[in-house]
Amino acid sequence: MYFESNRSSRDGMIAVGTVVMNRVESPQFPDTVCGVVGQRGQFAPGVMKRRMNPKSMPLVRETAISVLQGERHPLVGKATFFHTAGHRFPYDNMHYVLVTGGNAFYEKRPNYLVTQPLPPEPVEGLTGWHGG
What we know:
With 132 residues, the chain is of the alpha+beta class. The chain has one domain. The protein has three helices and three strands. It has helices at 10-25, 33-37, 57-68, and strands at residues 81-84, 94-100, 103-108. The protein has a three-stranded antiparallel β-sheet. Helix 1 runs parallel beside helix 3. It is globular. The two termini are 20 Å apart. The mean pLDDT is 89. It comes from Cereibacter johrii. GO terms for molecular function: hydrolase activity.
């Protein structure tokens, strides 16, 4: 969550965590958090080994615990994909649900079911930090 989102955005980290948990629950992906995050080509290189800024640890720890205890970003829904906000792709199967923490979150759908083909405006502040 930390390396894939704007590191100061709790919403971004919760949204990335929601995608990870959606993948864990999907038969199309590994069935563990480590399996999903460690899947080749899916998350930031070295994400399982890189060091985090110690100053960020209280927010990161609280956010990770919240996701593991069931908190989900309210706008991610069942999305299992995201990419860096601002990037554009030529695919017609990307149904966007949220932009937050520097990422655009989307579901892959048959093109005739895509009703949001462009990323919406960024949203922050829908989740709240529960730490000190």
